[in-house]
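Figure S7 source data.
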Amino acid sequence: MPDTLPPSSVVRCTQHLGKLDSKALEPVDQLLLILPERIPTALWKRIPQGARMQALMRKRTKGDLPALQTRLANKRQTLVVAGRVKAGGDAFARLTFARRLVGAALGEKAGCLGIAVLGFDDENTRDLAEAAVAAALAASFNLPEFKAKPTPSRIRSLRLLGLAERLDLSRTYAEARGNNLARWLTALPPNVLDATGYAGALKELADEQGWQYKRYSTKELEKMGAGAFLAVAQGNDNDSASIVRLRYRPDKASTGPDLSLVGKGIIFDTGGTNLKPFLSMLDMHGDMGGSAVAVGTLLAMSELKLPLAVDCWLAITENRTGPNAYKSQDVITALNGKTIQTIHTDAEGRMVLADTLTMATREEPGLVIDYATLTGAVINALTTRYSGVFTNHADWHPRLKRAGRASGERVWPFPIGDEFLEDLKSDTADIQQCSAKPLGDHILAGSFMAEFIEKDTPWVHVDLAASHHKGGLAHVPTEVTGFGVRFTLSLVLDEKILEDSE
Ligand SMILES: [Zn+2]
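Tokens for the predicted zinc ion complex:
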């Protein structure tokens, strides 16, 4: 039986400077050879048994991936999988290339995977090596299995070869750990990751990482008046639902948060009283994916020891049918005092997030980012290749897109605001939960949630259209993508968005 938390051991990566010679290749079982589109003859001379490879590659069609697959005549009969890639491509193209190349190398027994990037300038060498390591770390990680014979990991160790200088891979490693955690939690069955199991796993993780842990039980939330969260939670047959707050502080000082991450943690979404049909409900144990991305991001930031005070808020409950479940036309009072006319019980994500965003923003973070598998509309708009972003700082749209491009987790901004609230006008309450018409629900959801942000807190909402993508996405080989960790790190570290969110 796997644990609720993934194994914490990570595949080790060693770096070897200098020539790629047969000695450096001795322990390597599979070698990824990453080469430019046009390979000068001088380059083949730098590769052991290069002349033979050059001859073999002539027989291949341009654009083949792998461009070459052969074995070295050495003791280990190292499998060589070569790929040709254009210099200067974007992160998504690089990561996708890396996923495919790693995939081609892993058809056989687990072992030491070597990576050599040859024939590029320093910047491209670094970017391509980083992409290959990211793809290898994602591929080495197995999602939870409950079989008599679990699948062994396909990579035992990594070896970067032929480098001119050492690479700093700490961010790649931290992002991989965050992404792996997000994918693991999302893939767990809903009877293992139930609300109690989830809160317990978060407590265990918090203890391990030295984070503060606070669980707001339904009783406490009742006292506080978090009616929007509780409307969804009241359909459960027990009171295991809760809002959990995790706190990472880089030093002991009890400062307020610079950044708050908020996640939708619907353990299983039946749709509630407005029940989903079978196929729409089939994968609804993944409806807590937003919360998993929030925790994964916190883990990556904490592993990197970022000098930022980060809070993480997770809204954890099921959305069930039953005699106590909320229903259309119920009028509910949210934590911030606004009344909500319920329209559709399957629009539960914005309900639980409304109160959680109020709680998070009352602590006046410099920025709040929420993650949620929120709407089908965003998938209709974008497919599952991009995720949708929404913000109360419309001037940030270009920066959000840039962070998406730089990280390989691509996002596309949509508008929100008062204008769209016209579609949520209610006769019986301050606001309607959603519209009965199927137009732009992702935009209406974002506009609705903006009404629960307090203190004018700068806010970014990520509607995770790309949380699942058949065949994997970018460097990630599984359908569950853990999308969002790399994007957020890029937004904070590359775009330095916190410096402008005062
Ligand atoms: Zn739903």
